[in-house]
Amino acid sequence: MGNRVAREDFEWVYTDQPHADRRKEILAKYPEIKSLMKPDPNLIWIVILMVLTQLAVLYLVKDLDWKWVIFWAYAFGSCINHSMTLAIHEVSHNSAFGHYRAMWNRWFGMFANLPIGVPYSISFKRYHMDHHRYLGADGIDVDIPTDFEGWFFCTTFRKFIWVVLQPLFYAFRPLFINPKPITYLEIINTVVQLTFDVIVYYVLGVKSLVYMLAASLLGLGLHPISGHFIAEHYMFLKGHETYSYYGPLNLLTFNVGYHNEHHDFPNIPGKNLPLVRKIAAEYYDNLPHYNSWIRVLYDFVMDDTISPYSRMKRQQKGKVDLD
């Protein structure tokens, strides 16, 4: 159904990612940006409030009809849970307690993980650090789709299904591209999460558990916020690897839309990324960017020049240091 995408491979490039050089240049010109590299204590209170909110909703939905459980999972819970994954993204960069209290961030990430229903926080950090260090690197960066995804999801209908199933691809892709040995923190994350899920089931019932899991699955699939998965690095314009988004949904996503700014300065919390753009405006204002994640999703599905193959990919040069 729909035209088949003509692209049959990734966009292979033979240059380094642009972010390190731009960071060096910006810091030389605007050294005051270093003052923005500090923890965001407000993140702690926001995450606690979000967890408490979802706990309250788990109680409120326990006796609803199934249709309302699914309705509220998509209409409300999906926004909270997707936002929480981006809070975990912030915590993975030690933005809650700082680099000197790195383990505090790991424990806090497990706490933030609770309403999502699936153990995620610790593994995400391990792979996300690779994404920053080795952006687009073949066999390392698991943000890049597999060859199967690029080959199979190549028509309008199949791309739509791919968008719906994005959370599953993100969950299982690392096992095929860059499997890593399990760490003790991942085991703890899993035990804590499964214990919480069992408590939800026995105390509140199956509807609360389904609400929680459905909120994550629906919120990370066909959802306006999920436009950021595609907007960040899919090559809508040839030669441009990273794109920012400056629309209103940044308010719900810890400014993850400021993605060029984030890759240039991963140690700056999302709260301060608009200041990076303001200070170094000449570096960002002329870069391609988006104002609508919904439009990104629509264009990805309907444009027969774009597919999961629309990513810039490179062979990593030099020493690779994987966690």
Automatic annotation (TrEMBL):
Enzyme class: oxidoreductase
Keyword list, A-Z: Endoplasmic reticulum, Fatty acid biosynthesis, Fatty acid metabolism, Isomerase, Lipid biosynthesis, Lipid metabolism, Lipoprotein, Membrane, Myristate, Oxidoreductase, Transmembrane, Transmembrane helix
Keyword Transmembrane helix: yes
Entry-linked Pfam families: FA_desaturase, Lipid_DES
InterPro entries: DES1/DES2, FA_desaturase_dom, Sphingolipid_d4-desaturase_N
Subcellular location: Endoplasmic reticulum membrane
Keyword Transmembrane helix applies: yes
Function: Has sphingolipid-delta-4-desaturase activity. Converts D-erythro-sphinganine to D-erythro-sphingosine (E-sphing-4-enine). Catalyzes the equilibrium isomerization of retinols.
Name listed for the protein in its UniProt record: Sphingolipid delta(4)-desaturase DES1
Organism name: Pipistrellus nathusii (Nathusius' pipistrelle)
Record lineage: Eukaryota, Metazoa, Chordata, Craniata, Vertebrata
